[in-house]
């Protein structure tokens, strides 16, 4: 099977570092889906505005190395415990395909790039190729009583986040809320815990630098 991108995702994240590890964890994150010229046909989107959520099938295009192991180390388990690749959502897979559920904010029907989908809660890097889009259907896709394996027994760790007011003023209210929640999820590799180390990531055109001491993440103005 040869997959041809139908669209590309546009995000506040221009690198992998810092991106939430699952869609929906940061509901405030804004993104745009811009279709390739071949698929800029409004007829292909007819009826899509009637759905609140969409499934995105996309490529882990930033992964440079091929997956070679049947086992991976999920970050949620601290990065040391091995699980089967098909029992996780690791980006290192035999076929580098991701699956994300995003909220459809609105459709911008007339732009220089054809119809554009505005979505919330994505976990995709800027420029990510999208292979397909499907509507989220409650009666088929929602299973609220389902078990979630090791995820059920592992709480997501959240940090207290301190952002200096002068730095916060450089972001829109929505961007600030998205950054705050993103940082609270602790973007660091799970095997690193050096309070003197400064980490950095691009976000909304800014370079975000921060340190973590105990359970407090502080953004540093540099």
Automatic annotation (TrEMBL):
Single GO term (MF): methyltransferase activity
Domain TsaA-like residues, every copy: 3-145
Keyword annotations from UniProtKB, A to Z: Methyltransferase, S-adenosyl-L-methionine, Transferase
Name of the featured protein: tRNA-Thr(GGU) m(6)t(6)A37 methyltransferase TsaA
PROSITE patterns, per database record: TSAA_1 (PS01318), TSAA_2 (PS51668)
Pfam families associated with the record: TrmO_C (PF18389), TrmO_N (PF01980)
NCBIfam families: tRNA_TsaA (TIGR00104)
InterPro entries (UniProt xref): TrmO-like_N, TrmO_C, UPF0066_cons_site, YaeB-like, YaeB-like_sf, YaeB_N_sf
Family classification: Belongs to the tRNA methyltransferase O family.
Record has S-adenosyl-L-methionine as a keyword: yes
Organism from which the protein derives: Hoylesella enoeca
GO terms (BP aspect): methylation
Keyword Methyltransferase: yes
Domain of life from the UniProt record: Bacteria
